[in-house]
Specification:
The complex is a heterodimer of chains A (117) and B (109).
Chain A (H helix, E strand, L loop, with lengths): L2 E5 L3 E2 L5 E8 L8 E7 L6 E7 L4 E3 L7 E6 L4 E6 L8 E8 L4 E4 L3 E5 L2
Chain B lengths: L3 E4 L2 E4 L5 E7 L8 E6 L6 E5 L3 E2 L7 E6 L2 E6 L8 E8 L5 E3 L3 E5 L1
Parallel strand pairs in B: 2-11
Antiparallel strand pairs in B: 1-3, 3-8, 4-5, 4-9, 5-6, 7-8, 9-10, 9-11
The chains are: A mainly beta (117), B mainly beta (109).
Amino acid sequence: QVQLQESGPGLVKPAETLSLTCAVSGHSISSGHWWSWVRQPPGKGLEWIGEIHESGRTTYNPSFKSRVTMSVDTSKNQFSLNLNSVTAADTALYYCTRQGHYCMDVWGKGTTVTFSS
Amino acid sequence: EIVLTQSPGTLSLSPGERATLSCRASQTVSNNYAAWYQQKPGQAPRLLIYSVSSRATGIPDRFSGSGSGTDFTLTISRVEPEDFGVYYCQQYGDSPLYTFGQGTKLEIK
């Protein structure tokens, strides 16, 4: 059974870089799927940040394009998100997901990132 | 960017009633790549429906999806107490690749 587990610092400071990792278990990251990050601000809806393929190819949401970088480590079966120049607006629950048929068919439990001055 | 608008904002139903949730897109959704998710408090979203009408693995057949073009519907034939939560529609195809609706909250009376 595929499982995704997000990890990273719970607190970030202004202008710092947010770095999160998603560990994939029960499934090879080199399976041809794409893998995404989605976030959810407190009490709000879902926002797609971007996706990455095992090959390292990426597609980003233009809203984040200048600040986001994603990478994949096939040897560790994990992928990562870096979001720089963070502000309070980046406070959210961050999910990693597996892309299915033009949808997100597996989700991690999410990790909360809070902005701290 | 394709904007998805869901209605109603909140739906309050008794067990056994039929639930109809709507999702309207600001432009035609490519190849009808529309999906639906259920999110319960404190949990990650769960995929219910993809490609408009295909049920995800393990989803009960009381959940069904329909629609095309710009209008999509999620129907729960007979609402069960465990169906409470927020339901989101999602489209694939335009930039950004994925966008979500703002959600419909289903309350069980």
